[in-house]
Amino acid sequence: MNIILFGPPGAGKGTQAAKLVEEYKLPHLSTGNIFRAAIKNETPVGLKAKSYIDAGELVPDQVVVDIVAEALEDDIYANGCIFDGFPRTVFQAESLDKILEKHGTGDAQVIALTVPEEELIRRVLSRGEGRSDDTEEGIKNRLAVYQKETAPVLAHYANRGQAKIIEGTGDVNDIFNRIKAVLS
Ligand code: ADP
């Protein structure tokens, strides 16, 4: 079983991913977390990613796809995965289709969380994780990048009936129940 948590920054992908991990006993793969760890450890991937992340831009597709493809070789993903923050471009989505086909863990079910823009900005600025990209300018830029490059990914999945839209406002547990209700 593969689940993609989809939505703009601040939509609650990480929060719901943690709950899904517990419920479905699947591993969590967050490309943002992978990059932040790589930057902290000053690895070659981290050095490549840092300037993009600080600018609120997307890390180049091939860098992202390579780290995801490599990560998914690990046995912990043998039954599938909960993807968070990936795929973020149509190229990444098409690459993931091929990777999942190769692993035979099933098509991804996409959960798209919708939250009004003012609320997204409020959440990101108040989440206090100390992230260098969680500034007012940073979030505004990421939202613009989301609209331009990431929003079209939803159509890629919706066209094949793989996407469910879930309202991402209100109580965290209510949102989680909405998600569980649409997963098969
Ligand atoms: P948020 O959802 O708040 O933007 P993430 O942790 O998902 O947080 O991503 C933080 C940053 O990491 C992004 O702004 C981008 O620079 C980079 N990043 C994460 N995932 C991807 C991806 N799939 N493709 C390109 N860049 C990515």
Question: What is the CATH C level class, in words?
Answer: Alpha Beta
Shape: globular
Structural class: alpha/beta
Q: Give the CATH superfamily.
A: P-loop containing nucleotide triphosphate hydrolases
Low-pLDDT parts are none
Bound molecules: adenosine-5'-diphosphate
What is the straight-line distance between the termini? 9 Å
Strand order of the largest sheet: 2-3-1-4-5
What's the domain count?
A: 1
Strand content: 5-15%
Q: In percent, how helical is the residue content?
A: 55-70%
Condensed summary:
The chain has 184 residues and is an alpha/beta fold. The protein has helices at residues 13-24, 31-40, 44-55, 61-71, 90-103, 117-126, 136-158, 172-182, and strands at 2-6, 28-30, 81-84, 108-114, 163-167. The protein has a single domain (2-183), classed as P-loop containing nucleotide triphosphate hydrolases (Rossmann fold, 3-Layer(aba) Sandwich).
Task: Note down, in words, how this protein is organized.
With 184 residues, this protein is α/β, with parallel strands linked by helices. The chain contains 8 helices and 5 strands; from the N terminus they run βαβαααβαβααβα. It has one domain (2-183): P-loop containing nucleotide triphosphate hydrolases (Rossmann fold, 3-Layer(aba) Sandwich). The chain has helices at 13-24, 31-40, 44-55, 61-71, 90-103, 117-126, 136-158, 172-182; strands spanning 2-6, 28-30, 81-84, 108-114, 163-167. It has a 5-stranded parallel sheet, sandwiched between helices. The termini are close together. The model has no long low-confidence stretch (mean pLDDT 97). Bound molecules: adenosine-5'-diphosphate (ADP). Adenosine-5'-diphosphate binds at residues 9, 31-32, 35, 52-53, 56-59, 64, 85-86, 88, 92, 133, 142.
